[in-house]
Description:
Radius of gyration: 14 Å
Number of domains: 2
Distance between the termini: 35 Å
Largest sheet: 3 strands, parallel
Oligomer: single chain
Strand order of the largest sheet: 1-2-3
Number of strands: 3
Shape: elongated
Helix content: 40-55%
Number of helices: 4
Amino acid sequence: MRILAVAFGSRGDVAPYTGLGVRLHQAGHTVTIAAHTSFAPLVCAAGLGFHDLAGDIGVLTSPLAERVGTEDGSGAVVQAVDAAAAR
Length: 87
């Protein structure tokens, strides 16, 4: 089976998918992780496929950082991606 995991965010968001990906690969699956370019070495070092997510991670996450802990923060990821796509 071919599996694509999309990890948006920091190293703490991407790294768990490498562990999961390694176990899936050991079970015979082909695993690719899509994440920001800066995480390519982490993903490739785990022996997994990598696909670059376009965009500047700083621009994409800055609205999140401002909203975390606020009452309306629950939709921040969707709003940040929508705002980035509109640019």
